[in-house]
Design brief:
The complex is a heterodimer. By secondary structure, chain A is an alpha/beta fold. In chain A, 34% of the residues lie in helices and 10% in strands. The chains are: A alpha/beta, B alpha/beta. Chains A and B meet through α3 of A and loops of B. The complex binds iron/sulfur cluster. The site of iron/sulfur cluster has 11 residues of chain A, from α4.
């Protein structure tokens, strides 16, 4: 059965409409702990202009953000803070791990630096580099936008899938001292 | 500027077992642990060393020709005459307690907390001897040479947040 629609009316799914709105107005939470943070600032500033991708509103309150960008190494004392900030953000929310340090600990393979934040908080995108160029971070945001558009649902059901809950391999294989 | 010979001589006359040396314009004295507080009091009141630049420590475990385990280092300065003096004192386990220098130079407060945090040296009389860099529940002293660089797994002992636990 054909439905007559005027030219200026488009039909879509509600999920896709919601994802389209979400992906184009990401509000980043700048969790900048080290040198990568400088590159994060450059990304937001006029030369690289993150505003072109709708993600220029950096908010320093996690309650107003939906994209956490972890830029820099996270030490043992900072990790509980990171986790609390992540929990304070409202769903739907995403996380970008920016730079070698946030993703793997980088060159700081020492007793106090967490060897990759993805062991303790869920990460959606990794940006390699030390530090990554602003273009790389922008690419990660574009990729994240694609991901949101592709699998986003209005109910957030995509966050509940089994693959998203999986424990990281590094975490399964590493000996965990003092943990029962 | 190195410390004046009369400063060193006055110190050596009062404290037995003190050895002094000079290397490229830096004067160093080694005092026995038992006379550390008295020597520092003397240096502050008579030697007029009014600035405590740094307190730090060296772990000599497995160090060539070392006889003692820890070497405590105090860097002093006289801001009027520009004299500088390094005071060292050696400690051995199990007695790792030294008198705190906070009553003499209040700037020693955080410096001694750092030495406690990293090496486990206890400062007797310190007003607030807590860890300063590591988390409070951390149980080791990470700059000791027998502590592995990558730690004993403390950096992995955190709750893991899954995607649906917000
Ligand atoms: S990845 Fe490199 S630039 Fe980024 S925080 Fe680590 S050391 Fe700094």
């Amino acid at each position: 059965m054909a439905v007559e629609l005027p030219d200026n009316v488009v039909v879509t799914k509600l999920d896709e409409l919601a994802s389209w709105c979400r992906k184009n107005s990401l509000w980043p939470m700048p969790f900048a702990t080290a040198c990568c943070g400088i590159e994060l600032m450059a990304t937001g500033a006029s030369r690289h202009d993150l505003a072109r991708f709708g993600a220029e509103v950096f908010r320093f309150s996690p309650r107003q953000c939906d994209l956490m960008i972890v830029a820099g190494r996270v030490v043992m004392k900072m990790l509980p803070v990171l986790q609390r900030i992540w929990q304070q953000m409202h769903e739907p929310k995403w996380c970008i791990s920016m730079g070698a340090c946030a993703s793997t600990g980088g060159v700081f393979d020492t007793y106090c630096v967490v060897q990759g934040i993805d062991r303790f908080v869920p990460v959606d995108m990794y940006v390699p580099g030390c530090p990554p160029r602003p273009e790389q971070l922008i690419q990660a945001i574009i990729d994240l936008q694609d991901k949101i558009q592709r699998e986003g649902t209005i109910s957030g059901a995509e966050f509940e899938t089994a693959t998203r809950q999986m424990t990281k391999r590094a975490l399964q294989e590493l000996p965990m001292y003092g943990r029962q | 500027m190195p410390a004046k010979p009369e400063t060193i001589a006055a110190l050596a006359a009062r404290f037995a077992g003190l050895s002094a040396s000079e290397f490229r314009g830096d004067t160093r004295v080694v005092v026995l642990k038992d006379s550390l507080l008295a020597a520092m009091q003397h240096l502050k009141s008579d030697g007029k060393f009014d600035l405590l630049v740094d307190v730090t420590c060296v772990d000599y475990l497995n160090y060539r020709d070392a006889r003692d385990r820890f070497g405590l280092v105090y860097l002093l300065a006289n801001t009027v005459t520009n004299e500088r003096l390094t005071v060292r004192s050696f400690l051995n386990e199990p007695d790792l307690t030294v008198p705190s220098m906070v009553p003499l130079w209040s700037g020693a407060n955080w410096l001694e907390r750092e030495v406690y945090d990293m090496f486990g040296i206890l400062f007797d009389g310190h007003p607030d001897l807590r860890r300063i860099l590591m988390p409070n529940e951390f149980a080791e002293f990470p700059l000791r040479k027998d502590y592995p660089l990558q730690g004993r797994g403390e950096r992995h002992n955190f709750p893991v947040l899954k995607r649906n636990q917000a």
